[in-house]
Amino acid sequence: MATDTTPTGTLPEHAPRWKRLPVVHQLRTSVGLQRGMLVAGLVLTAVFVLTAVLAPLLAPYGWAQLRADGELFGSHVEPSSDHLLGTTVAGYDVLSRVIWGARTALYTIVIGVILSIVIGVTLGLLSGYFGGWLDRVLVVVADAIYAFPSLLLAILAAIVISGGQSSMWGGVMATAISITVVFIPQYFRVVRAEVVRVKGEAFVESARVVGAGHVRIMTRHVLRNAVRTLPLIVTLNACEAVLTLAGLGFLGFGIEPTAAGDWGYDLHKALADVTSGIWWTAIPPGVAIVLTALGVTLVGESLNDLADPRLRTRRRAALVAGEVGTTSVVPGGVLAAGPEGVDGLDALEGAPPEILPESEPVSGPEEDR
């Protein structure tokens, strides 16, 4: 019977496609603390995404709802069966505001990261492939933009777009545009460096020899080999997008409370409540910001560790029980000593040939010669 010699921790070529997906593959190959961090990050991120998607079903009230059954909620109502996390100073339900705030944060992440990827990857591909004056100009501009803090750009964008106080989409777009401008240099640098390395490979030169055009070479040969590290940057940028949106709302340049739920705005309005002993208006949005940022960061850091050979933890080889004798290559696989030890091998192969004693050399005519 043939023996499976596939190394531990590797996937055979016939493995299902879902096992080779980026996150699934890292989850299967991670061990110990790395697996714990990755699992914790995936759980927190999944809870955040599901809360945002299912907000209309999970939220007991609307984000700006002040009354139910014709009665006002009231200001600073303590947590109860009607309001599990109490109400704010303006009379909004805290739990509903937190749930709807997850959807606002998800909108910001998706729009900001997608815009950053499209623009940054395109510019990096063109700059690294063609080089010349275009490459020098784009590198200088990217370095200059990268020096601006994202929060300052978010404030400027919010003021330009809607005068500082905005609707939901105005605030989301202001934050998304600001983080897009800041994140573009990151994608640009990574893609440009990979394109410069890949365009000198033999398969790219072969494509040029057979007459392939620049567009085909960039899209079919260079691009697919230059974007392997982008998932790591996406997770880290998603965390920064959440913090930028929260900071914008905390400083008073975020989304109007009647337009959408905003964790930063709710945290800003709860500052005065903390000194009065009212804890339920500040802790829920603060915990939501921390857990969301922590979950996305754990995913990004775990993927980064698993992608770095110097930080990757290798799986330990399984211990083989029993005594293993001398092995040889046979058609059925590796031949090893069984429970009888080396004697079992001798019984299979037959008795060893007798070794003749070394005899004295015989002298003869040829010796005399």
From TrEMBL:
It holds the Pfam family BPD_transp_1. It is found in: Cell membrane. Keywords: Cell membrane, Membrane, Transmembrane, Transmembrane helix, Transport. Its main location: membrane. The chain crosses the membrane at residues 37-59, 105-130, 137-161, 167-188, 230-255, 278-300. It is a multi-pass membrane protein. InterPro entries: BP-dependent_transpt_permease, MetI-like, MetI-like_sf. One of its GO terms (biological process) is transmembrane transport. Residues 102-300 form the ABC transmembrane type-1 domain. CDD domains: TM_PBP2. Residues 341-369 are annotated as: Disordered. Gene3D superfamilies: MetI-like. The keyword Transmembrane helix applies. GO terms for cellular component: plasma membrane. Belongs to the binding-protein-dependent transport system permease family. This is Peptide ABC transporter permease.
